[in-house]
Protein: nitric oxide dioxygenase
Organism: Corynebacterium terpenotabidum Y-11
Amino acid sequence: MFTADAPLREATRTAHLTPAHEETVKATLPVVGAHIGEIAHTFYKGMFSAHPELLRDTFNRGNQRSGEQQKALAASVATFATMLVTPDGPDPVAMLSRIAHKHVSLGIAPEQYEIVHHHLFAAIAEVLGDAVTPEVAEAWDEVYQLMADVLITAERDLYATAGVEPGDVFVDAVLAARRDLTDVVTEFTFEVSDAPGAFAATKPGQYTSLGVRMVDGARQLRQYSLVNWDDRGFTVAVQRDGEVSSVLLDATAVGDRVDATLPAGDLVLADDDTTPVVLVSSGIGSTPMTGMLAALVTGAGARDVTVIHADVSAESYAQRAVTGGLCEALVSQGSTVRRHSSWTGAGERVTLVDLEIPAGAHWYLCGGNGFLQDIRDQLAAAPDLAPVEVHYEMFSPNDWLLGE
């Protein structure tokens, strides 16, 4: 599932509050912003109390326990509201695109926005008390409805690209093979014989959500970047981190089935066969880069490609061998390829100014939040690199990037 961001950008550009509501939101944004974390916590608590099936079968419990999901919601609402009332406010298009892709990868449907609306405004009233006058509630209701309308439209467009109804994204995936890549990363190959061709339209860099049954009966979902795919199925790499990964590693054998969603994600290799490409990853973030490199190998013409990766050690770099093979294939086709590796276990760090990197490239980043923030900061301090665009995917809900 994938669409260009032009319709989303236009929908966001034309989203406007009524003048009276704009003034109310502008006046109350500081107090709402100051309490948005508490509001988000109260919201999720109330929603999951009324709809336990959402926490059991849709939302990732690990992100709830860590507070990451609450921070992501808080940042997204605050960012969208700021955009509506501030002429030079943050551009929310990248944020909304990532949210829309995450939602379709979980099978979120339009009617669930009404559930969110009810419990979000109950939380606002509970946290802010008498400060929530009818005028304030009405103004912030419009903020939510505008944001929901933009997202519902974007998600409907994404579902349409796969020819499915909203929410109808799950297929049966049967484990066909598994092999250890490192001590902590295992490669899983699934077949989707009941839905042939379901992954054929995957774009390099996208992910699937895998759903497994826990001991308590809950179905928990987690996104995994796609390494390979064809008409028969797909391959992902799993690193032990959280409930879903543990079940896949410890309790899933060849022949077992899991739920899988159609491919989604906006960290996608641009349709451009001339602009240099810079792939930057840390740890298991190397998996979407592998898919992009494979696509570059099968693409037309020579390319300028730079691969930058940070890991604990060479032995822990799960995609090291396959990345090397793909880079060699690119070189044999006449591409210019540079590889830079940094081993954090030896105290090394990716330092962009020390590397040979072409200016005017498409940059693709995937890794932990701290690593990506460091790369973003370095790019901001290196104007000579002048990226055409910076695309990124994170391991957890995207809270720190939402204000940009």
Notes: The longest strand covers residues 170-180. Confidence is low (pLDDT under 50) at residues 399-404. DSSP finds twelve helices and eleven strands in the chain. The chain has three domains: 6-161, 170-261, 277-394.
